[in-house]
Amino acid sequence: MLQTKQLPEEELAPVLQKISSEGYNLVPRLTTPILDAVLAAPPQGWDAKLLRRLTNLAWQTHLLNRVVSDMHYWLRATRTVPDHQHGVAVENHARSLESFKQSARATLKVVRQVLELITA
User: Fold this and answer.
1) Among positive and negative, which fits the CA dihedral 41, 44, 48, 52?
2) Tens digit of each residue's pLDDT (9 = 90 or more) over 44-98
3) CB 96 within 8 A of CB 67
4) CA distance 29 to 63
5) Cα–Cα distance list, 84 to 61, 70, 76, 87, 95 (Å)
6) In the Cβ-directed half-sphere of 74, how many Cα atoms lie within 13 Å?
7) Element (H, E) at 47
8) Which among 5, 30, 23 is positioned nearest to 117, based on CA atoms?
9) What is the distance between the alpha carbons of residues 10 and 120, in angstroms, rounded to a whole number?
10) Which of 76, 71, 75 lies closest to 98 in space, CA to CA?
11) Which structural domains are found in the chain, ordered by start?
């Protein structure tokens, strides 16, 4: 498994670029059942700063999953739209892939912030 805390952004960029260069068109949705449970009933004694960061992580994950849904939609559209609209669907899928890369970086940044608080 990839150690995200120790992976500098310079090394992360090639990993994210590989997603598109290797022909990956879909990525799975991220599920966070433990995070959802913690936010639904926070343990006593956890400080507000950590809970805010966890809430931010939940939000970033939600946004990332919205982008993943867009990727699925536009990939499906590349196979179902009429020929005269195929180029638009392909372009929108490529844009959603770029949005995924940006959202993944933002989500990873929040993960690192949460890890800093948990491991401190």
Assistant:
1) negative
2) 999 999 999 999 999 999 999 999 999 999 999 988 999 999 999 999 999 998 9
3) yes
4) 11
5) 35, 21, 16, 7, 19
6) 22
7) none
8) 5
9) 24
10) 71
11) 47-120 (1.20.58)
